[in-house]
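USER: For my understanding, would you kindly supply a protein sequence with its structure tokens?

ASSISTANT:
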Amino acid sequence: MDRLTNFVKQIRNKIAFLPTIISIAGLVLAFLMIYLEQINISSYLIDVAPGLVIDDTDTAKTILSTLIGGLFSLTVFSFSMVMVLLNQASSNFSPRVLPGIISDEKHQFVLGQYIATILYNIFILISIEPTENSYQTPGFSVLIGIILTVLCLASFIYFIHHISQAIQVGNILIDIHNRTKSEIENIIKQEKEKSLDFPNIENWEEYEITTSGYFYGILHDNLLKLCKENNTKVVINLFKGQFLLDGTIGLLTEKPIDEKLKEKIMDTLLFNNEELMGQNYIYGFRQISEIGVKAMSTGINDPGTALNTIDYLTSLFLVLMKKWEYEYVSDSDSINWSSTKCPTFSEVLYNVMATYRQYCKHDITVMRKLMHMLKTLTSHVINSNQLKDIEIEINELREDAKLNIENKRDLSKIDTEFISWS
């Protein structure tokens, strides 16, 4: 079941996922209507509601041909709009926001509806066959085709509205923030049902990872079953999102294991040749940081967006502070059988701050906002280590400000309370 769930998650982010399913539904509907026409449903409806049924063959063929041509144009235009959207998002914000836009269900649904309606109309047009000296006219099926096309036009209007909203940086930031926050909160919720009890791993057996690629997760149920069957605990000494080369020491076991068991454990680790955005909450911090830094580039020059990104990062850091430094695979008795390394609060904070300090150190407004974020975090620390890490970043921020901001009045306000003037 774990493997099936993982497979669904991977294909779910593909732009062709929903369109393929909906297109198949369009084909099924077409064959269903062809069957109903063979049992003369149109003749029955002509007797009941003649105004709803098209009984002229040439008119039916003309209408279907027109609908198919129009929908092809509509589909091409809509796909072109998506490509423009992706290109603009990649250029102005970050290439890493593309998976979130591509996997948007609303975009996929509209494109799928177009293709399904085209296929439906094509097969209904093909089904118009000569019967002796006349043609069998699928009048009711043509009516359904017209209704589906009208729905496509309504979806097109919605599509234009939604796509114009999706490209706005504010909506992109909100989506990344909400998705990342939800991922962290789900992990914290699971942690409440577990314990921190895990043996010391100082003298455990070490094994090499024999696969190259980006590590992005574990098949929890499969790994738990292997650990319990062989009565051994396992440490996955890897970070999610880490790129591994063949030969990296990444697997530790409580007792020696044979090559067969090692391969089975390796099969529970998930690797990919490319980074899978959305599979790891750390990407949320990375995406928001990249949008903020790119906004400060000379080509875009949008410090307001940089300030907004810091607000969302502050919110995410407040949640991240509550998370454990390890993720555990536990059984129903809350016994931890496996642990996986996670980026610590200190590491994530440093990476974010180092990025902003490098590209925003000349802008007093952004520097003050960063200082405000750090001071806000100090009032929500969970332990003394977090407070120490934040104080280090505060000192580094002050040093960079002194070296890069020449105006003494600006420097004097680096520690004052930040009040947005926008």
DSSP finds 16 helices and ten strands in the chain. The chain has three domains: 3-167, 195-225+242-272, 278-412. Residues 278-412 form one domain. The first strand starts at residue 130 and ends at 131.
